[in-house]
Task: structure prediction
Amino acid sequence: MSYALESKVQSSELLSREEFDAAIRAVGAERYHDKHPFHKMLHGGDLNKDQVGAWALNRYCYQSAVPRKDAALMSRVHDNDLRREWMHRIVDHDGLGDEPGGIERWLVLTDGLGLDRDYVMSMRGALPATRFAVEAYVRFVREEPLVVAVASSLTELFAPKIHKERISGMLENYDFIDDKVMAYFKRRLNQAPRDADFALEYIKDHAKNRDEQEACIDAVRFKCNVLWVQLDALYHAYVDGHVPPGAYRPGERNV
Result:
């Protein structure tokens, strides 16, 4: 057998569960947005309050889209066990009864940064790239095969590390940040590992061939790109100073 043919045969073989797990985690090691310069500036105390506010305002677009993304996935699911497991993700973000969800906790953060809540929720001041990236994620989950859509959530595997850095770094470096406004990240320290563990086991069980496994790995790359491009846009606008028309401008009346 020629080397080329042998390589082709090998590449079509199903990855073991351990190899599949390692390939997913390798994406985060290479591409997760904790490596982005804007992220390092945010956690290192190198941004001013207006720049942190711009980040929080834009990130609200992503936070508010998460339950829409999860509802889109659930609408496709015929397995009631999967629906029951996935349902708590919507509750985690939207809240239920007297329990506020992650979106409300995020708004406590933007309140604490002096941003008008109605303006934040309107998303009128968000960067165009933010809106495009977030909606691309929702569309991806709505349209891709179910196992691939589930895999796109697996950046949660890498989230606890970034949340710990964010909590300690922002509390230490910014006098306008306190425990109250960091409540979102503290809650996610427990929620993200639970969700990631379930999703990882699901794709290991349901990606039935090598092509599906590779599509799941690519889905994690896609999701890392969704997160990365949002920081690219923030850096371009609020560090380099190229704020597009209609976007939030610190020091101006934003309504």
